[in-house]
Fold this protein.
Amino acid sequence: MNSLGSEIISKSINILRKYPLCSRCLGRLFAKYGLGVSNVTRGNAIKTLALMELHRLVMSDIKNLTLLKDVSDNVGIMPQLVSKYSGVSTSKHKCYICSSRIEDIIVELLDRVISEFSKFKVNTFVVSIRKGSEIEKRELELISEFNLDSWESIRRELKRELGKKVKSLLGIEPDFKHPEALVSVDLDTLNVKVVTTPTYILCRYVKLGRKSPQSGWVSNSEAGKPPLTIEEVLNPITKPFNAEEFEIHSLGKEDYDVRVLGNGRPTIVELRKVKDKSVNLNEVGKSVLPNEYIRVLFDKYIERKNLRTIKSRKSLKIYRLLILSKNPLKVDDVEKLMNEFSDRIVRQRTPTRILRRRKDMEVTKKVYDVKVRLIDDYILEMLIKCDGGLYVKELVHGDYGRTSPSFSEILNSELIVLEVDLIHIFQT
């Protein structure tokens, strides 16, 4: 016998002399050796070879019968070998690691996993076994005692076995990087729980009304309550996914009285506790609340790992504004504004209107271009191309000097914003 085979058999005899082990648990201790061989097959082979070696030793010296007797009760095969030499029948002991329940455990866990999956529609999954079970503790104790380096954990084996059987029976694929469902198993209680990963959808909304904020009304008073919010429009999309929760991840936020036109504002919808992961994106749009003020365009599903990248993208925006001047205006004022705000850096402190909920800080943004049309002596219409995050209302009236330069500062006139439309967003 070669040195590796001799080492495996020698270690196995020492282990089996002290601990009874089923074939699967013994085979797992030497899982490093043998490709394409199951732990059960490996364990049976090791037991057979160990008993053959002990048989050889007994045949050469009957004094080795004691060793054979010590091992045979913990092996569970070839009982006739011991009785041939001693006339005494062997007794079968329960496996020290799994109490000889591992095969029943696999069957029961599989039944529970299949039952749980009947509540979901998913395409991919991964199995997770909770750490620290009593079985795992006994396994680690034995591995440490005999200083084994060829083993695989029972957790790994069960994840593999359950994964193969779920794939075979349900036709869904294991996915270790981005699974749609996580199967969580507790070996002590045999409890099984299936949890789906959140579903993320990149979408855009176009807002034709001027009183539709993104999120719901938080005041106890009904006064000033908006007729419709983006959140309310999107809420019904939980139904086709059979999801319990959803959240909007805003990629910027306009004031509630600002219309969003053109290609719309990108946003991400997160659906949690989803039971149906097979929903076609073309069907999602049919579920949103029909209305004449807000349209939602669903672009694509995205992975969680892409959230930060998408959120961190810089953007350029084009706004349309209608502005009222306290003082009469001239054509020269139009030219002045367009010249002053061509590739102009603007310093802005947090606007006074939102100081109650935002930290007071200063930022710099760039205005790239301004196109101005004088409608009459007091009203201006303009297009502003600027960095995302620039407060365009404050750019107009200056916010008591907190934004500089401002249109009001350049024209030396009090300016009032009448209308704001976000008409295009460029993602960079």
Notes: The longest strand covers residues 259-274. The radius of gyration is 36 Å. The mean pLDDT is 90. The chain has four domains: 3-86, 102-196, 199-312, 315-427.
